[in-house]
Amino acid sequence: MTEILIDGQNLDLDMFIEVVRNNKKIKLSEQSIKNINNSRALVDRYVDEEKVVYGITTGFGKFSDVIISKQDTKKLQKNLIISHSCGVGEHFSEEVVRGIMLLRINALSKGYSGIRLSTVNTLVEMLNKGVHPVIPEQGSLGASGDLAPLAHMVLVMFGEGKAIYEGEELPGKLAMEKAGIKTIDLTSKEGLALINGTQVMTSVGALTIYDALSLSKLADISAALTNEALNGITDAYDEKIHKARNHIGQINTGQNLLDILNDSKMTTRQGEKRVQDAYSLRCTPQVHGASKDCFSYAKEKIELEMNAATDNPLIFTEEEQVISGGNFHGQPMAITFDFLGIGIAELANISERRLERLVNPALSEGLPAFLVKKGGLNSGFMIVQYSAASLVSENKVLAHPASVDSITSSANQEDHVSMGTISARHARDILNNSRKVIAMEMLAACQAIDLRGNAGLGVGSEIAYNIIREEIPTLTEDRIMHEDIEKTERVLKSEKIISKVEEKIGRVL
């Protein structure tokens, strides 16, 4: 298996996923090794000269004016990690932690941080051998970076804290021993170099945008199935309409729907059954398209941040300068993740409205109430819509922007913070809710197609229908719907529907 080369410049979303989800190994490029060694040499010189430089020979935050002696610089760095390990709450998943480690390695490889090569290699070895520090989700202000959660990552590097290794939660020292990795002692600048950055929020956000891009494809497929179940009008998807407005996401969504529905015998043209459909069908390209444009923006910003130097101070070896600044501030990502969460939430919002049209006999164009025979004795999909409504309502709370909030810290030295990690976590939670809603719509659409009578589905929607029906039979009387919803969600997460539909239509959705 070829290793992914880490150079601080070229990490992209697909490479990130290969390492984080598929356990591909990494190694540092020769240029990165050179950059790391050069910046470290300057730090060592400044320590020897006892030059006053923030974070190297001074305290942190409000203590930046406290000078630390040469003899105490090592203790300063260890105390930094121990004191900053204040995370609380549930623990991040192992894939998020792998992303955090990868992104921190990539940032350090740029050579602006002044860390020793041996320390970076320890983190590389932990990632490659699967030692995953236990990192609590809560406790970051998103400036100065993700201090508290990143501190929990570093604890394991010197044998403290806890880690998951081969599926077992162990004391950090034992996990390192079992993996055959030597623990380290931090020296000057290293603790700060390891925790002063935006890698936690960026890891969560990178996984979320990757899954959001897949979800937007599934939303198009689900909308197509609902269109057929309701004998929807395809004229609204005509490319002339969308090119007249000229938003890329809208144009692509209209084309997706036409390709998925190609050859369908269940769709209609305007005037055949009615003149126009409700917004949740007719405006699918406009709504889904807006979310896709949001996702394109978010992906661009996330990939920029993946390759950014985000700690403080930064070391510029050619100029022999150490400059204090604010690249740790998460605001560029906080706003991005708030926007991302809103874009994902809207996919679920319109999906739930289509689901309502399927189950409501006043809106469903002749389908049985709540998509079940012997209604009254059976409730059918009635409470499926309730559950979807609950999730989209929860999403509206989660979509409130965290980036507009700030609470001062460190005795007002750090008087504006981003809350970007909260933004990223909320976007992730919105994604998980939204996938469930789209699973509910797709399941209901398949049921509605069966009840109306499958006269022949489109080339793409037929694939989705058949895959769902391989797992979940038509509902003939009430059963535990939770199980059907979970099975459908697992199918969506597998991306089997996406790959088969794209193969059939001959292009990427």
From TrEMBL:
Compartments, record wording: Cytoplasm
Protein name as annotated: Histidine ammonia-lyase
Biological process per Gene Ontology, one example term: L-histidine catabolic process to glutamate and formamide
InterPro entries according to UniProt: Aromatic_Lyase, Fumarase/histidase_N, HutH, L-Aspartase-like, Phe/His_NH3-lyase_AS
SUPFAM superfamilies membership: L-aspartase-like
Cytoplasm found in the keyword field: yes
Pfam families tied to this protein: Lyase_aromatic
